[in-house]
């Protein structure tokens, strides 16, 4: 027989009437009834379910008490952590704010995997990260680059990626080099615009403090005093990855990120991202990080879509 418990969580209770969607998510995740009452949050289910839901509600209340953002995706992630008995570990440490955007948004790690990724970037000169779409690998890499520039630990940001999508090569595309590269760099531009604001971004781009270049143009360069970000690294060959990593000069930091489920290289070509993670994982000063489906911070459907595709690939294997 199901039991009922009234959970008193001050901050959550104050706004639960206008955020019933949060309670609906919890109900769906634990298969129980969670309802806002005048006296608190009513949880109806078996003893173990009530205990887990209470832990989630308490964690949500602590987050709101610190004036931090709490959205449906965050609530779903807290539920998932509790179901895996990892919520207490997540709440034990507080993720510092990486930076605040011009719009006033605090940027910080949102998942345990992202926490590991940000910590790796703060402690190592080279970080190589792979993860699914929406797991924050590019955005957090750009955020750490902007932070390094603001703190003047580097004097410029260099952004690069291979241009191989749809079988097109840069030479076939119309316009000068900036016009050729622009469509490929749009995700990074979007991140920079959010993190820096349009005026600061365009000013730094014009001054050369932010440099955007296709990977092919990295050959032969020595990049000192820079934060260098290689995005879409799953589309590099082993030779290209080695060439890129050896461009690193004095007082420079490197972030490499990509998604090995979205490789556009010709069939049979080994990709440089997986190879680098294997070859370099035991070198001091280099950290390798693998983000998972649970680290996805986009629309919850993105996580479900990726999990469905991955499940199909496992069945085929």
Describe what this molecule looks like in 3D.
The chain is α/β, with parallel strands linked by helices and 317 residues long. The protein has 12 helices and 11 strands. It has helices spanning 10-15, 20-30, 47-65, 72-83, 87-92, 112-123, 137-150, 177-196, 198-207, 238-245, 272-280, 300-316; strands at residues 3-7, 33-37, 40-45, 99-100, 106-107, 126-130, 156-161, 210-214, 226-230, 253-258, 286-290. It has a 6-stranded parallel sheet with strand order 8-7-9-10-6-11, with helices on both faces. A 3-stranded antiparallel sheet has the order 1-3-2. Strands 4-5 form a two-stranded antiparallel sheet. The chain is globular, with a radius of gyration of 22 Å. The model has no long low-confidence stretch (mean pLDDT 86).
- Name the shape in a single word: globular
Note the run of SSEs as H and E: EHHEEHHHEEHEHEHHEEHEHEH
The CATH architecture assignment of the largest domain turns out to be 3-Layer(aba) Sandwich
Give the tally of structural domains.
2
Task: Tell me, rounded to a whole number, the average pLDDT.
Answer: 86
**The CATH superfamily title of the largest domain:** P-loop containing nucleotide triphosphate hydrolases
Spatial strand arrangement across the major sheet: 8-7-9-10-6-11
Low-confidence stretches: none
Spatial separation of the terminal alpha carbons: 43 Å
Q: What share of residues is helical?
A: 40-55%
What Rg is obtained from the alpha carbons, in whole angstroms? 22 Å
CATH C-level name of the largest domain: Alpha Beta
Question: Care to count the β-strands?
Answer: 11
For the largest beta-sheet, the strand count, sense and barrel status come to: 6 strands, parallel
Question: Might you state the CATH topology name of the largest domain?
Answer: Rossmann fold
Number of helices: 12
- Strand percentage, roughly? 15-25%
